[in-house]
Amino acid sequence: MLKTNKNNTRKPTGVGYFINGIQTLFVGMLRVWTIPIVLMLSVASGFTTFYGLSHFITDWIALIITIAIQSIIVICSLEIAGIHWGANRVRYASVVLSLLIALTASVSFSYFKFYEVSQQGNIHINRLDEIRQSVKSYLGKILTIKGEVIKQQHAELKKASDDVAQAYFGTHRLITGEYQNQIGDGPFYKHYKKIYEDKKAKQEKLDLESSSFDEKIQQLQISMSDLDVAKDIENSYYDVLKKYQDVQLQTGKLSTNMGQGLPEAPLLMTYKQFIADVTPSTAMWKGFSLFAFICAAMVDFFTVLLSYRLEFTAPGPLTVDEEDLVFECLRQFTEFTINNNDELQMVIEKTDIEKARKYSDLSRMFAVGLLLNRGFLRKLDHRTVEFAPNLYPLMAEKMADKINQIKAASLTNKDSISSET
Q1: Parallel, antiparallel, or unpaired for β 384-387 and 344-347?
Q2: Among the listed residues 32, 111, 40, 50, the one whose alpha carbon sits nearest the alpha carbon of residue 74
Q3: 288 and 351 together in one domain
Q4: 377 burial level (CB within 10 Å; 0-12, 13-18, 19+)
Q5: Same structural domain for residues 58 and 22?
Q6: Which of 8, 32, 35, 367 is most buried as measured by Cβ atoms within 10 A of its Cβ?
């Protein structure tokens, strides 16, 4: 349905045109909303980049470099959308190279922050496992030596017991002459009995110390188990350190009774080291986290993508006079086609006839240059340009005005003819 206004121009009405207007408004709002989204993504990426970079260089230098990196990403993303490889290969390659370098720097230093966030729990578990493995290895060596020593002591005590029995009944291999087969507590018996009693006392003392040592180990293992689920980590960790020191003291006593040295106890990390935050370093790349890398790359990817899409919106609107100039000048071109991007493209070179007539195309080339600078046209090569999406509504409006003017003139002519008749 068409509605006529006072100026004899007719405006479309109806549900279809209303829906189309709503859709146009929605698309326009999305384009406007893209700008703050790009800025927020750039700030987020800049924060993570600065965080990683500041651990390697001075803060103010890191801030300047971060601003430069994020600016290059946005500028190059906008610029790469407006140029084509065939139009200017050197410029295109330089823009792509600059973008890749900036993205590499941004993603690399942002990776440290996402690594810290994503691996914080794993790092705590790894530190806990490191403590457990150190203590387990230390106790394993001690218990192995302790078992061998106790086994040896039991063997020696049994031998001493056998020697006492043989000496009492006079059957010991060292008894000779008149003392053989004489039962009683003679000098041989007293000698071996003293040896047996010394070994027995030593064995009892070793068993007592071993029992106390096992108890200390059990308390240490309980404390380490509680550390993983404790609410008060600080007190729990200091309790582990205390129980570990008790085990070391008991190990010293045990070593004295065994009569030999035991392995040196490993040095456990302090509480500050246990709860310390992750410090960015190149070691993070050795334990590469794919999730952290994807998160770091995803932020910059969306920044590039939305910045690229922003190029489809002109940096500034045309004035009414510029719109009329552009429309009239573009009408002077004759070679229009639809390219592989489903965009309308045109040849901006003079035709052979125009060259033969020495036609001056200053006005229309000025219009092309204006549209290229404003983002309404994109250069494909030295002789071809294509329409940007935001040029179509402008041309459609001008063409509609032109058609309405023709229709209005036609109606005026019909009215004048009918009045004459």
Answers
A1: antiparallel
A2: 40
A3: no
A4: buried
A5: yes
A6: 367
Q: Classify residue 247 by burial, with Cβ atoms within 10 Å: 0-12, 13-18, 19+.
A: buried
Question: Distance between CA atoms of 247 and 135, rounded to whole angstroms?
Answer: 10
CA distance 244 to 265: 9
Q: Is the same domain home to 358 and 392?
A: yes
State how far the Cα of 107 lies from the Cα of 94, in Å rounded to an integer.
20
Tens-digit pLDDT profile for residues 274-312: 766 666 666 666 667 788 888 888 888 888 888 877 765
Q: Which residues contact 291 (CB under 8 A, 6 or more apart)?
A: 114, 118
Same domain (yes/no): 325, 349? yes
Residue found by looking up tokens 């430069």 in the block: 68
Query: Does 360 map to a domain?
Result: yes
- Chain centroid to CA 120: how far? 13
Cα separation values, 183 from 160, 169, 193, Å: 18, 4, 14
The one-letter amino acid at 208: L
Residues 24 and 90 reside in one and the same domain = yes
Bridge-based pairing state of the strands 377-381 and 344-347: unpaired
Are 31 and 107 in the same domain?
Answer: yes
| Residues sharing a CB contact under 8 Å with residue 19, sequence separation 6 or more, in sequence order | none
Give residue 64's pLDDT band: very low, low, confident or very high (50, 70, 90). very high
Both tokens assigned to 203? 């064995």
Residue 101 has a pLDDT of: 92
- Structurally, the chain folds into a number of domains equal to 2
Q: Give Cα separations from 179 to 183, 193, 289 (angstroms).
A: 9, 17, 82
Range of the structural domain that residue 33 is part of: 2-117+282-310
Is residue 362 situated within a structural domain? Answer: yes
Selection from 113, 95, 93 nearest residue 47 by Cα: 113
Residues 293 and 376 in one domain: no
Full-prediction pTM beyond 0.85? no
At 389, which CATH number? 1.10.10
- Do 296 and 339 belong to one domain? no
| Rg of the chain (C-alpha set) | 45
Half-sphere exposure of 362 (CA within 13 A, CB side): 2
Is residue 68 situated within a structural domain? yes
What number of CA atoms fall less than 13 Å from residue 350's CA on the CB side? 12
